[in-house]
Design brief:
Rossmann fold; binds S-adenosyl-L-homocysteine; about 450 residues; globular; 7-stranded mixed β-sheet; alpha/beta; 3 domains; OB fold (Dihydrolipoamide Acetyltransferase, E2P); 22 strands
Length: about 450
């Protein structure tokens, strides 16, 4: 077998990253977008020993679980790897993946069914679009997988509809004003949009590689005239060549530099650099579920590590004596302090620190510890501090169950798993949020 050979295969199961796995002639094939029981023709792309990565060319026999997708970027942008799978089956796939992680560690665990969305479309409240030029006209979208080619998509099925509309207007104005992207004689790199779904307020950021941004005044004028929902526009300058979108320098071109939103009846001011969950409908379910699982008491002291703009801390605050939120991004901590003020919440403190260092220096009682770390999970030092402080309960919320299960494994000498509840925050992608409740033995 060699690269570019065409082969007929039958898929037996889905790998944890949603590739169809097929065995043939001692080789194990991995094929994106192929489902179990499907017969297909594929082209060999890469051979690594007995492992072959192949691209789907034609499906001869379709699975009963396959649904047609009407996304123009399907199989190109690489974000929605499950768009062709019935939603109920996506939820089963995510539950099985989490089950497997616990099983592989030798941990016996019962996992609740994944809580899915009633309407799993247009849920993303944030867009980061890359910009390019095609036939002298602006195109925007995600980069193609493993490349820097922009996949133009005017109607992303998982993005908020208003943001899709505003992106079309931005494209029209950029074309009209002849504003060019970086690499095509211009300075524009990315466009970031965020919407508050309860308030319909929109924040727009233009990321440029230079402070000079010719045409910006006309652009701001045209956009704010056309879309009253746009409450603020920011220019962020990032001259460095880096995969990180934002640079250090911000200039507010319109409005106050933030938007408002509401989660579980608490008001939030959100700036562009702060982390804010991308699926607010499911976030309300996630937080409500996590808080219920914790069975908090009025006398409890709660520590909320990786607190972002304070959403978990502020939601818990009504139920407990006090909450301490710890977060490393200054803008997020400022947002969190402000959010406590505007909601008149007085029993919450926010601290700007690395959670690892904070925990190392902390010596008081914790009744319940909430952790919601980034994909990399908790580090060894943090876990050692948890073992020393021994909070009665730990609610571990994670967007990456792989690191979550590794971290939990290290706590099992002192803690037992009481409940595992996945919540689908990212329909059609392979990702899943997961809550695990641990109690001290
Ligand atoms: N709980 C929040 C935020 C979760 S995202 C919410 O649900 O909205 C994870 C957060 O951890 C981000 O805000 C990120 O800035 C922060 N973070 C990452 N590394 C950190 C560290 N070492 N110490 C403290 N906070 C950190």
């Amino acid at each position: 077998m060699k690269k570019n050979d065409y082969i007929d295969l039958t898929c037996t199961y889905l790998s944890t990253d949603a590739k169809g796995v097929c065995n043939k002639r001692d080789f194990c094939f991995y094929v994106d977008y192929l489902l179990p029981n499907e017969k297909a023709n594929v082209i060999v792309e890469k051979i690594n020993g007995k492992t072959v990565y192949a691209r789907l060319m034609d499906i001869m026999e379709k699975s009963v679980d396959r649904i047609d997708s009407n996304c123009s970027s399907y199989m190109k942008c690489g974000s929605c790897k499950l768009l062709h799978l019935k939603y109920t089956k996506q939820l089963e796939f995510k539950k099985n993946n989490i089950s497997l992680l616990f099983k592989n560690k030798g941990i016996k665990a019962i996992i609740n069914d994944v809580i899915g969305m009633n309407n799993p479309f247009n849920y993303r409240n944030k867009v980061i679009a890359s910009i390019s030029l095609d036939n002298k006209k602006i195109v925007y979208g995600m980069y193609e997988e493993n490349s820097h080619e922009v996949v133009y998509n005017k109607n992303c099925l998982i993005q908020n509809k208003l943001l899709n509309e505003i992106l079309i207007s931005i494209k029209e104005e950029l074309d009209k004003l002849k504003i060019k992207p970086e690499g095509f004689g211009g300075v524009l790199r990315h466009i970031m949009l965020r919407v508050g779904i309860k308030t319909n307020e929109v924040l727009v950021v233009f990321v440029t590689n230079n402070d000079l941004f010719p045409g910006r005044n006309e652009l701001v004028k045209a956009l704010t005239k056309k879309h009253k929902e746009i409450k603020t526009i920011i220019q962020n300058t990032n001259p460095r060549i880096t995969p990180i979108v934002f640079g250090n320098k911000d200039r507010i071109l319109f409005g106050q530099g933030f938007i408002n939103d509401e989660l579980l009846s608490i008001k939030y001011k959100i700036s562009h650099k702060s982390f804010y969950q991308v699926n607010p409908i499911q976030t309300e379910i996630l937080y409500s579920k996590a808080i219920n699982m914790a069975k908090l008491k009025e006398t409890d002291t709660v520590l909320d590590c990786y607190s972002g703009i304070g959403t978990i801390s502020l939601t818990i605050s009504k139920k407990v004596k006090e909450v301490i939120g710890v977060e490393i991004v200054k803008e997020a901590v400022n947002d969190a302090i402000n959010n406590a003020k505007i909601n008149n919440i007085k029993n919450v403190r926010f601290i700007l620190d690395d959670c690892k260092k904070f925990m190392n220096n902390y010596h008081s009682n914790i009744d319940c510890l909430f952790v919601d770390p980034p994909r990399s999970g908790l580090d060894r030092e943090f876990i050692n501090s948890v073992k020393r402080l021994k909070p009665k309960k730990i609610v571990y919320i994670s967007c990456n169950p792989i690191t979550q299960v590794d971290d939990i494994y290290q706590l099992l000498e002192l803690y037992e798993i009481k409940e595992i509840q996945p919540v689908d925050l990212f329909p059609h992608t392979i990702h899943c949020e997961n809550i695990v409740l641990l109690e001290k033995k």
